[in-house]
Amino acid sequence: MRRPLVAGNWKMHGTCASIKQLLTELTEQALPLSVDVAVFPSLIHLQTVGAQVASSNIVIGAQDCAVQLEEGALTGETSALQLKDIGCSMVLIGHSERRQLQDETDRVICRKFIAAQAAGLTPVLCVGETLEEREAGQAQATVQRQVDAVLLELGVDVLKNAVIAYEPVWAIGTGLTATPEQAQEIHAQIRAHVAKYSASVAQGLRILYGGSVKAANAAELFAQADIDGGLVGGASLNAKEFGAICRAAGN
Ligand code: PEP
User: Fold this and answer.
1) 3-state percent breakdown (helix, strand, coil) of the chain, nearest 5
2) Residue whose CA is closest, atom 2 of ligand 1?
3) Which class would CATH give 5-250?
4) What's the DSSP call for residue 83?
5) Which residues have a catalytic role annotated?
């Protein structure tokens, strides 16, 4: 039985005052104990958020980490060890916005995945096809290539301490959501692909769906057999919406 995870990716949003308010509203709500809840604020807010959630079950994660584990002359970068030191337990790796805006390649993403695990963080590996790839019938091949960039390079056992987030690029921040059936199809394909290397790792692997998840569509998505929770962008900036999404994952 996989424990659901709902993760809020706050992206480059928030001020000290607004995130404090958001967390106050979030921690006042009853969140289901059967669901893991994580928030991924901007780097500059990690410490404040960590302090504010310390007495709750919410954990914090970062939106990216450096390819290099050890400290060094890498201006503007943050290492996975520094993230661990500040209280993170997770880190997003290969979010489509970074793949697109920062030209992150599968090779770079694999190196970041290695650094995250070496620091004791759980990497949340983000994969997903563009609209063009879906329309060309390439959705499955694209996602498999992105999973293989880690799986074939590092071996299946690294997925014992990792999460995969399937986020079709065309559904991120667009209001377009994959139908539960479309999402389930890709999730099942990812699990079946991992199962070729290890049935038990595939069985235990949490695969989140991301792409315009909101309170109104969460329950239907999370009811799918291979969807183990969500990576939520826009809706995670609204405490009521995010709380409702967490509760949907607990039902
Ligand atoms: C995301 O950025 O990971 C995401 C899924 O965003 P949204 O929920 O806004 O589509």
Assistant:
1) 50, 15, 35
2) 233
3) alpha beta
4) H
5) 95, 167
Give distance in angstroms: CA of 195 to centre of ligand 1: 27
Domain boundaries, the chain: 5-250
Q: Output the CA 88–ligand 1 centroid distance in Å.
A: 20
Atom of ligand 1 nearest to the CA of 11: 2
Q: What is the pLDDT along the chain (251 residues), one digit of tens a residue?
A: 899 999 999 999 999 999 999 999 999 999 999 999 999 999 999 999 999 999 999 999 999 999 999 999 999 999 999 999 999 999 999 999 999 999 999 999 999 999 999 999 999 999 999 999 999 999 999 999 999 999 999 999 999 999 999 999 999 989 888 999 999 999 999 999 999 999 999 999 999 999 999 999 999 999 999 999 999 999 999 999 999 999 999 98
Q: Would you say the CB of residue 221 lies under 6 angstroms from ligand 1? A: no
Residue 15 DSSP class: -
Please provide the size of the chain in residues: 251
- First-to-final CA distance of the chain: 14
pTM of the model: 0.97
